[in-house]
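Changelog note: in this version the structure field was regenerated for every chain. One regenerated record is shown below for reference.
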Amino acid sequence: MGYGAIPYVKWYKREVENILGVRGMHVEKPAEDELEALLGLREARVPPEVHAGIVESYALGMGMKAVALKYGLSSAAVKSPIERHNSAVANEGRCRTCTAEKSGLAEEVVDVRRR
């Protein structure tokens, strides 16, 4: 058992001290839906006309990066509509989004090319 106290060095952070505030830093927390999208917990959704355009562009031979550049999206945001399209065609016989947009590929599975 000890008696007395050992003084902290002057640079040591104390429990009640806001070290970020002292250093002039500010932590920003994104909105819940934005956070889910950033962490990949939720699929990024695109408007129906963009969904149909992505599927058609990819089916015509454009790569995912080229399609992503065309629509100003990330490659992951391009892959998701293609996968949803193929899943809908496999399960329901057609993609409802592409049907609503009058796409000729509404009932066709799009081959996903691998590098």
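Spot check on this record: The two ends are 67 Å apart (CA to CA). Residues 1 and 7 are 17 Å apart (CA to CA).
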